[in-house]
Amino acid sequence: MAETGRLTRTASAVPMFSPVTLLRVAIVLALLAGWELLSRSGWLYRDVVPSWVAIGKALADLLLHGDYYFHLGVTAAEIGAALAIGGISGLAVGILLGANRFLAKAYEPYLYYLGPTPKIIFFPIMIMWFGVGPGSKIALGTLSCFFPVALSAAAGMRQIDKVLIKVGKSFRANTWQTVWKIYLPAMRHPIINGVRLGLGVALIGTLLAETKLSNKGIGFLIIQAYSVFDMPRMYAMLIVLFVLAIGANALVGRLGGLHTIRR
Amino acid sequence: MSALARRVTIANWLPAALGLATVFAFFLALEGLIQSGAISRFIVPPPSEILGSFGRVWTEEHVLSRFFFTLGECFAAGVMITVFGIAGGVLLYRYKLLQEAVETWVAALAAAPVVLAYPLFMVIFGRSAWTIIMIGFVAALPPVILKTLEGLSGTRKVLINVGKSFNLTGSQQFWKIMFPAALPTMFVGVRLGLIFALINIVGVEFLINYGGLGQLINDLAERYDLPGTYAAICFVILVSVVFFMSLEKAERWLRPVD
């Protein structure tokens, strides 16, 4: 039997790294080199732009220190509570407004215009109502989270295919069954989008409140590092925080299956 | 007026009237509860006192000059996001490789809680208006870049072909076809950016106790002037709402048909 040749692709045909990857690496390296140069140049006050070595060391210290995880736990618990309270109440209000056009016309403009106001200005009120402890931080996070979830849920409710509701009615589904088996699954994507937005603003609200008045939590640690001018530690905490925030945002999107939406 | 037209008018006004009536009833109930002692006036001042303190806060706390200070910061941040955001979007559009490499980074920056880095900005720019403006700028830049890119990428092929048939140069093609076609989408980005900028600017003013309206709330809260604090918060909400409504109107004017 004649030996047949096998189709093979030479290694040189496929570049190991795509031009996009190479450009990304080049940009990151240029930024790191520029930063290091700036830190050694003495153009800015000492420690304003600390060396990457110092930031790396501070990052390692931070992540190896148990105390940091206690503060991270406090902040995570506050954000979780804010997301649960704000998310559930926002969802309930959103479903109510989305289901009733009259109520939506009456109350949705208030939500729409109050939604983008800076929530941190309500912090003095929250301190009066809930004290200086975690309660006021949770309340501010809840207030921040409520609006995007409510508006997304109301918009999602209005987008539900009428056929699905008619199918529910033809099966004589009661209100609870209609909400649980038709509305919520059909509104999954708008709700997850709202939760993503809500998570982002709850995180900002809670952490800003911690930086303003607190004795525990990541916000407190950041402002403490600022007050003692420990810049490497502050940069390290901001890096961890940004990674966690962006990661949590992406995780919520992935869990909700947002990447599967067909455009 | 026909019966049908009258019914339509009533149907349009009734929800708005219900909304206003609910707000009014809420404040009336709050007043009653506070006056009866069910809610402590040292935690929530009566709405009548808040209403009465508006005039005092306006004159004694120089609200107008504070308003213009905040507006100036918003304007500075707005000019910067417009210039750098649109330039960034055009740059990413022109260089596809760069776009592929950094577009996701810009989107990630839009999701990043930039305002939390305000202590860092304070170290770099000091406790000054520049710290506030720069935070507003950095937080508001990504939507302008992304929307500029979206607007330019979404230019209809037929318009580009018309430009080609007239033998327009690259620059003419950009300024006479692509830029005007992308302008409404770019404005959506600038509007979003300005909203982000206002939120961050007022927030940072409050946090670092410097500047205009945000500082006013912090000042009054630290003096435990509760009716004044509530009045100042109401004023900031009012300013924000008027700001958003004006931007929406401007966008509708620029984009009459979707």
Structure description:
The complex is a heterodimer of chains A (263) and B (258). With 263 residues, chain A is mainly α. Chain A has helices spanning 19-41, 52-64, 66-99, 101-114, 123-130, 134-158, 162-170, 175-186, 188-212, 218-227, 231-255. Chain A has a domain at 73-218: MetI-like (MetI-like fold). The model of chain A has no long low-confidence stretch (mean pLDDT 86). Chain B is mainly α. Chain B folds into 2 domains: 3-44, no CATH class; 56-254, MetI-like fold. Chain B is built from 10 helices and no strands. Chains A and B meet through helix 1, helix 4, helix 5, helix 9 and helix 10 of A and helix 1, helix 4, helix 5, helix 8 and helix 9 of B.
Instruction: Find the CATH topology of the domain at 73-218 in chain A.
Output: MetI-like fold
Low-confidence stretches of chain B: none
The second-level CATH architecture of the domain at 73-218 in chain A is Orthogonal Bundle
Structural class of chain B: mainly alpha
Radius of gyration of chain B: 24 Å
Query: What does the average pLDDT of chain A come to?
Result: 86
CATH domain class of the domain at 73-218 in chain A: Mainly Alpha
Find the CATH superfamily of the domain at 73-218 in chain A: MetI-like
Structurally, how many domains make up the residues of chain B? Answer: 2
Brief description of this entry?
The complex is a heterodimer of chains A (263) and B (258). Chain A is mostly helical and 263 residues long.
What labels would you give this structure?
heterodimer, A: 263 residues, mainly alpha, MetI-like fold, 11 helices, B: 258 residues, 2 domains, flat
